[in-house]
């Protein structure tokens, strides 16, 4: 364990046990950064009342029981315990981290099977910035879980089934298969959908044809299925194009769309009925999960078979959760989906619990994704008010990034490559750096800024460290220390570096990528202070220079590894 905060917490807990008895050894020691020391423990203040002793007295007892190897401790103020780690300890840990290919990130002793449901665009509608965000957040969670040693199963729950396909197939026949498929692969799915919708709403004959098409699809009519397959196939090409642009790890093997569950839906209804979990209400088969009431306090139903016999989104999700638990053997299931679907997932989870599928050994969580807004504070659309085509948006990001680096004198091909990395990095970082459930305003200027908590700032920080090594003709791989800490900025940098492992663990544990972003941002800033206060190449003393090179190399590696977990590519120069 290298995280200084955790090391101190453990020490103070030991002292709590020694001073006040074992029942206190699990008390939160309330370790916080301090102005006067590295950290302070505030637990004496919170315990004083319970122990019926003055806070300073409690702090004194703690201090006496504390193992102070590598630490200095003193009482301050009303009863804070100020804690400072020894320079040798910090330097020693930093060298260990430098020599550890995992950079201090622990590998899970008991790997878990983590199913991650993310991206999940609708083939029948549009892929919008909301899907972009679930794609990006989900991908970071997948990468992080893999990195900490869990077994990750990605599930792209495509919206590829249901009644809209009746009209979409009829529209395809109307405009001609070839033309339709070309447009779908090009990402014109939105316009295509809207045209079909308009005809459906205004042309009764088309509406009639579309309705008749639905049972043909569900009943497995070969020609209808063939057309549906083509439709999905070409739409998938577009999704894959977006994933490639973004450097997202999803592949066709991860697709487990709604259609996949079609053969299981009848059985799901039967099992739930048999178990007494589902009942017929007003002609529809419903589950009434406990704890959900609507207006007038009436129990809220999760409809799993409509009165016309059709199945819906909820039925599919119940089939999916059963499959993920029984067949995929999930220990944990993350649903990285828009926050607006919160009630749906609560009801699905509760129903699965009542059905006995979601038992205590499995955790299902809705990782709620907040909306992406336009500058007008409404859901993000293009300027013309039409919904946006994602590839165009991403291309715009690349073009704008190119303008940001235009004056660097790169030849066009190199510039284009860097611009792609910077543009995509900017978009992804914007999605990841705010807490996943908060809304934020999509703003290219802010995302692409080279200062502040942005992707390009962090990319630039790595390029700057690389240029130090280039300038001095040193190879970062050779910078192995030893590390000696003299200047306060060196200490601060090293302390920050040591926290990396526990931050990565927290991202996996809590499904909160923004913690890693904040950490990397703080790290880049700590490096800037270090670089301003401590000459590296110009250090007079050879040992000092080697130590500073080692700190720089470690910072570079942690930044690169962190950005890799965020799915952000890093140009060598910027
Ligand atoms: N396709 C859905 C949508 O766009 C998201 C699906 C999320 N996953 C799930 N298991 N329901 O809203």
UniProtKB/TrEMBL annotation:
The enzyme's E.C. designation: 6.1.1.19
Name of the top EC class for this enzyme: ligase
UniProt superkingdom: Bacteria
Gene3D superfamilies: Arginyl tRNA synthetase N-terminal domain, HUPs, Isoleucyl-tRNA Synthetase, Domain 1
Database matches in SMART domains: Arg_tRNA_synt_N, DALR_1
Pfam family, one: DALR_1
Residue intervals of the Arginyl tRNA synthetase N-terminal domain: 6-85
Start and end residues of each DALR anticodon binding domain: 458-574
Subcellular location: Cytoplasm
HAMAP family in UniProt: Arg_tRNA_synth
PANTHER family: ARGININE--TRNA LIGASE, CYTOPLASMIC (PTHR11956:SF5), ARGINYL-TRNA SYNTHETASE (PTHR11956)
Name the record gives this protein: Arginine--tRNA ligase
Species of provenance: Sphaerimonospora cavernae
Gene: argS
